[in-house]
Amino acid sequence: MTNNSTIDRKDFLKQVGMGFGAIMLMNCLQSCSETEIPDPNPMPNTGKLDFSIDITASGNTALQTKGGFLVVSDKKVIIARTLADQWIAVSSACTHQGTTINYRANSNDFLCPNHQSTFSATGAVTKSPASSPLTKYNVTFSANTNTIRVFE
Ligand code: FES
């Protein structure tokens, strides 16, 4: 006669094994089904910077004036409208220690307020201590939609 509070070793292993197997099967089915369901709206992700802004939108109006500039913080890009009505976009983080740079319309260049490095309109270093250029981006402007597109 067996004691009710004990379980046969074979039965115990069978129960544990079935429970473990069920858990593993569920995990496998879950992960398999997650990776095999295709995205219904696939978006090509090239990893390259490409965004647009409306210069009439609140916060972007500095670009409505020649000589104005705007830092798009979440993209780490500074966009400038030159006095000659050209568009420039470069990376906004100084290559020395990462301080956000400013645009100087009169000299058509960029100044880092931290240690006064300067960069040309193409992003080249014109005054140290920065030694690496800024990344220059392409810019197009649509007068119909008042939209600037910045892209690599
Ligand atoms: S952080 Fe820009 S010059 Fe030092």
Automatic annotation (TrEMBL):
Gene3D superfamilies: Rieske [2Fe-2S] iron-sulphur domain. This is Rieske (2Fe-2S) protein. Residues 74-148 form the Rieske domain. CDD domains: Rieske (cd03467). It comes from Lacihabitans soyangensis. PROSITE patterns: RIESKE. InterPro entries: Rieske_2Fe-2S, Rieske_2Fe-2S_sf, Rieske_Fe-S_prot. GO terms for molecular function: 2 iron, 2 sulfur cluster binding; metal ion binding. Keywords: 2Fe-2S, Disulfide bond, Iron, Iron-sulfur, Metal-binding. The keyword Cell membrane does not apply. It comes from the Bacteria. Pfam families: Rieske.
